[in-house]
Amino acid sequence: MNAEKPDWLKYELLAKEIYSKLEPNAVVKHNVKIFGHLSNRDRQIDLSIRSEIGGSEILVIVEAKDRSRPPTVETIDAFAQKMRDVSAHRGIIICRKQPSRKNVQYAKKHGIDICTAIDIRHHKWEKHIIIPTVVNFKEYRIDLVDGHVHINTPTLHIDIPNKWLLSEDKGKSFKLIREYVLDFVLKKNLITGSFRFKPPKKLTICHGQQDGQPRYWHPYKCTIAIKIINRSLFRYSTPIEYQALRNYSNGQTRVAHMNITLPHPNDSSQWEDASKIKLDTFERFTIANIVLGEFGLFGTKMDAPEVIHQEVRHLEKRISGDRQF
User: Fold this and answer.
1) What b/e sequence results for 117-149 when a residue is b if at least 16 CB atoms lie within 10 Å of its CB, and e otherwise?
2) What is the SS3 assignment for 184?
3) Residue 168 vs residues 5, 153, 171, 198: alpha-carbon distances, Å
4) Domains along the sequence of the chain with CATH
5) Which of 2, 38, 200, 283 is the most exposed place for a label (fewest CB within 10 A)?
6) Are 232 and 275 contacting, i.e. CB atoms less than 8 angstroms apart?
């Protein structure tokens, strides 16, 4: 049975995970030995971060301390000595507790940043994170109207099932009707309003297969009716996953990973109109771009929460002041 890792080791590994995400082009290693030119011996380093700038290698060393007290002047002095010994260009001390402003300034004089690693999945390193969230919500309502299928001369107006296929080259390439219609709308780059279009190419439609391949292609004519609705929505969100690095030396928080599950944009009880919110009062907020398709033809909806899960991305917006979320 594998023994449970001690918290100090988990904290070091959390720091490695965060820096690997924040610095994807750097080489991040855990628990390495670097030769000290002053001490003439190997020095143990919790994390080494090596990168290259202008052909020159940059070495940053990190010391992660899962302790109940912030780093002292003595801790900073000892780490600064280790930096000089291994010829590190910068140093970072990661701690659980916020240091005093005096010690932060003292560390900066030695080229050292003091940070806190945050992971809300672990009770010791979690913070209460509330994220101002803006959703740019675009809803497509699409119908195929006046659709006619030509089968053996007669022209029939029938309801087309979702599983039928459409082709512009008589079956050489094809898409599900849902895919074809949505691609058509996106290529038009329509913004908002109601529109009606006829596909520019001759379409054929397939209603059956033979030996696992689409067969029985028939000419198909239709008009695409589109209604596009744009809204911007706002709410405060609590992420279900959140990893970040809080740097006390410059006051910035760098988010390495975040996952937010948002309620459905049509749930008015969970959202406010973003146009009524003064977004410039926030130092940073999250933007989600949501596309929700409601197809009258298929009678189904795309699952908005899944789309949100895939499309949420973090955006930092700097303004004057020191407001933090």
Assistant:
1) bbbbeeeebeeebebbbbbbbbbbebbbeebeb
2) helix
3) 59, 20, 7, 13
4) 7-119 (3.40.1350.10), 130-240+259-325 (no CATH)
5) 2
6) yes
The Cα–Cα gap between 302 and 293 comes to 6
Structure-token pair, residue 312: 């949420």
Whether the predicted pLDDT of 234 surpasses 60:
yes
Contacts of 34 (CB under 8 A, 6+ apart): 42, 43, 45, 48, 61, 86
Q: Which residues in the chain belong to E strands, given as ranges? A: 27-36, 41-53, 56-65, 90-95, 112-119, 131-150, 155-156, 165-167, 175-176, 193-197, 203-210, 213-237, 241-247, 252-259, 272-273, 284-295, 300-301, 313-316
Compute the distance between CA of residue 226 and CA of residue 143 in angstroms, rounded to an integer: 7
* Residues 164/209, Cβ–Cβ less than 8 Å: no
Read off the pLDDT of residues 15-41 as tens digits, 9 standing for 90 and up.
Answer: 999 999 999 999 999 999 999 999 999
3-class DSSP assignment, residue 188: helix
Q: Which residue shows structure tokens 């074809």?
A: 180
State the pLDDT confidence band at 154, using cuts at 50, 70 and 90.
very low
Q: How far apart are the first and last CA of the chain?
A: 41
Cα 137 to Cα 9, 171, 288, distances in angstroms:
43, 35, 8
Q: Work out the average pLDDT over 227-253.
A: 84
Tell me the whole-structure pTM to 2 decimals. Answer: 0.62
Is 121:92 a contact under the CB 8 Å cutoff?
no
- What is the C-alpha separation between 54 and 227, in angstroms, rounded? 52
Count how many Cα atoms sit within 13 Å of the Cα of residue 100 in the half-sphere of its side chain: 8
| Confidence at residue 310, expressed as pLDDT on a 0 to 100 scale | 32
Residue where the block lists tokens 């002292």: 72
Q: How confident is the model at residue 104 (pLDDT cuts 50, 70, 90)?
A: very high
As a whole number of angstroms, the distance between CA 317 and CA 34 comes to 39
